[in-house]
Known about the structure:
The chain is α+β, with helices and mostly antiparallel strands. Strands 1, 2, 3, 4, 5, 6, 14, 15 and 16 form a nine-stranded mixed beta sheet that branches. Strands 7, 9, 10, 12 and 13 form a five-stranded antiparallel beta sheet that branches. A two-stranded antiparallel ribbon has the order 8-11. A hairpin with a 5-residue loop joins strand 1 and strand 2. The two termini are 14 Å apart. The structure holds zinc ion (ZN).
Amino acid sequence: MRSATTSIAIDRDRLLHRLGELAQIGRIQGTSGCSRLALTDADRAGRDLVRTWMEDLGLTVRIDGIGNVIATTHHGGGDGPGSGPAPVMAGSHIDTVATGGRYDGNLGVIAGLEVIETVLAAGVELHRPLAVGFFTDEEGSRFPPDMLGSLVYAGGLSLENALAIVGIDGAVVGEELDRIGYLGPAPLPGPAPHAFVELHIEQGPVLESEGIRIGVVEGVQGISWTELRITGQSNHAGTTPMPLRRDAGLAAARIACFVRDLAVELGGSQVGTVGAITLAPNLVNVVAAEATMTVDLRNTDDVALSEAERRLELCVSGVERSEGVTVAMRRLAQYEPVSFDPEVVAIVEKVAGQMELPSRRMPSGAGHDAQMMARICPTGMIFVPSAGGISHNPAEHTEPDDLEAGANVLLATMLELAEARW
Ligand SMILES: [Zn+2]
């Protein structure tokens, strides 16, 4: 590799300025956060701004049928997909949840743009073109499922089905895309890049608490959501002897404790959460007749996650017998874990080390567009710390030094991928 490519760095002020400018759109008054739900007028305004920046850099901007916007550098005469080498691509999303922060998603897009501007300004010639994109409706807050744009790009859902999705407000994806002017002609599934790298805030507390600057993301955890409806018998809290009770509340409590113990016992990346329990009739002097609860299990290891699901079922059967209740289980969501490309992961780790930035390998607990792109090309992710681990909250914050460091790791990673003659 030529040393010139490792000596260039992104423009911190330009990066921060663009992040700030984009955050003005849909800004939540009195906070530094944003509300730009997918395919709303605010999303359109954010899209228009980022697209203008892409066009100002002279990039070829393509909009596909689900509204993903991808900008590519010109390279060696050919600039269409399939003509010349496939690009090394950065990207993420610019839609937010209704109470969003300014960095979730936006950082990966603006930093990708910054990488390209830096490379163009330095006149570095690469073996491969570079690209940056933003995917439609990553958050899924208005139109489920989340990661919709990247899912369709990677061929995981047909365009026809995606365009017909009805949102929480009754709006239809295809109609809203048309209304805001982002129902584009580029074909789907989209062309596979040479490699894809997503810079994102961690959205968790691990990096900050350990004083680490860069998260080298090895994969995305698998997720299993189950709803349990427990039926017992309501009865008088004073007159019903303990051995004769069929207490749905106690059964829920036993299962909740089991989930905690299970996660600790399985160890590794296993986490388990009972985030919701409702009792009926929910009165101080009545044994609960019914309990409805949720169990969220996550693990980066598919086999271990299946084992956790199996053990939960065994626990539930045992509680049915011991407490005299019946339990109906319903699977709400199930996504397999995703492992990122070992070579891309190794490059991210290496360049962070070269920059003397403390790093650690880690899984992502949240879903990201990168997990969809991992279906079609070598993919990796870079995390930077989230202050207090807070995200999906207007108070979301990442220190400017960390934003800059993450963008420089993205730059060096993309340069290495674009020069490598695989
Ligand atoms: Zn995000």
